[in-house]
Queue: 2 jobs
Job 1
Amino acid sequence: MRFHDIGARARLGDEGEPGFEIFVGGGVGRTPMVGHCIKPFLPRAELLNYFEAILRVYNRYGRRDNKYKARIKILVKDLSVEGFAREVDAEWRHTQGAGSLIPESTFETMEAFFAPPAYGGARATDLAFVAPRAENRPFARWVERNVAPHRHPGHGIVTLSLKKTGVPPGDATADQMDLVAELAERFSGGEIRVSHEQNLILPSVALRDLYALWERARRNGLATPNIGLLTDVVCCPGGDFCALANAKSLPVAAAIQARFDDLDYLFDLGPLELNISGCVNACGHHHIGHIGILGVDKNSEEWYQVTLGGSEGERTRLGRVIGPSFAASDIPEVIERILQAYVRERLAEECFIDTLERIGLEPFKLTVYGERHEAAH
Ligand code: SF4
């Protein structure tokens, strides 16, 4: 929510009442910026009133005269976060408690659409789950990486990986989509979510059904146990499809996945996000990958700039460029060197982004550029 023009995070107020924390001024693309909180708690009934106030402030003061500056993030920078928040609050006061106030009955109607499924008596100790997890290593690995805890006991949240090596990230065939629909009907109350990491999620699966689900998904290329690992690459369509691209991105993703197609190594590396965009519009969110790769045009040739240290979620950060760009053929080797630096420097159980934050960019630059980097200092 901190990389959007307007972000809203659901939270509870002091009395337990539902509402939202509001952020503005985020965005990736040409001028990447992290959004700022302008309202720590907004009652949910006021959501539309407050959004309208933000848009009115933007309409009044935003740089509509210049398409490169016609974004809320530019206005927030110009007015300052406090100044923007003041303007929005002043505007909001005109409609607060009236205007587009959302009545409680509307929330009740919405909640009825998302009535929880009949969970039944599933338990985490069901033999149909415990036995195969103890005996079948591939299944256990898939559970470890692709199944997240569910708040309802005996259930899990399953991510079907669309990141099989040799297949463009996020691609699924018509037959696979038919299968996903069938799996959702049978195992997850007919529900499917699409993640911005380009995978598909079955939000509510009984643990005792996981093995049967896994077998079907595995036979059809949907159970690569790599969620949150290096090969779970987020990648835009790039120069193969997009008219705005500076460079191809899918072949770079394919080369990385092929080079690091060793599950033992991936599991040893642990959580690591790698994002690729084919141009500065940043549809692949390269700014917020732990490792980011951006396609750039240099004298009509395709080159790739590497950033390190981006992250989303609670620890929102923009990645920083490590140095001069690389040819496409060099990228797998560059990633290899970055990983070598991490493995050499990490403390026990320390994940990539934590090591990077602890030691900074220098050791990584040195390992990637070697003497060239030392000579520049
Ligand atoms: S980042 Fe650039 S190349 Fe990739 S899809 Fe977006 S506009 Fe196209």
Note: The radius of gyration is 23 Å.
Job 2
Amino acid sequence: MTTELISLVVNGEAHQVLVKPNWTLLDVLRDELNLTGTKRGCDTGCCGACTVIVDGKTVNSCLMLAMKADGRNILTIEGLARGDKLHPIQEAFIEKGALQCGFCTPGMVLSAKALLDENPSPTEEDIKTAIAGNLCRCTGYIQIIEAIQAAARNLAGSASRR
Ligand code: FES
Ligand code: FES
């Protein structure tokens, strides 16, 4: 099988990776770059556990061929915290008890991040729409929605204090 060298920026760091035509972005992130915060759930685009942000939009990384990620800018869950300081969305998930096993959490948090970047004051319906592709089998969605609402308030508060 032929391979191709792709260049991508992940969490602000430039990488070059030799990929096979059948590899997905999820394969590259987890198996080549060792960024295992992005989870492999269904591997068929149904669960959202593999959600990452590509050029500002959420993508199921299990559905994106690695070669299509050439030249793209990717944010994974590992890119959110600043050293020991968690991102306000991550803090809100903890504060609201919005996770149990945590398997869906990286994808949920990144869907929330993409939403709040685009729409800092989402309605409950906006939040439900944003996380519609992210399945959670154990926490349920009430605390997750509350966490995203709390993160929106906290982010708005810190922006107005600047
Ligand atoms: S692992 Fe990609 S959507 Fe489930
Ligand atoms: S916290 Fe377990 S699947 Fe969501």
Note: The chain is about 35% helix and 15% strand.
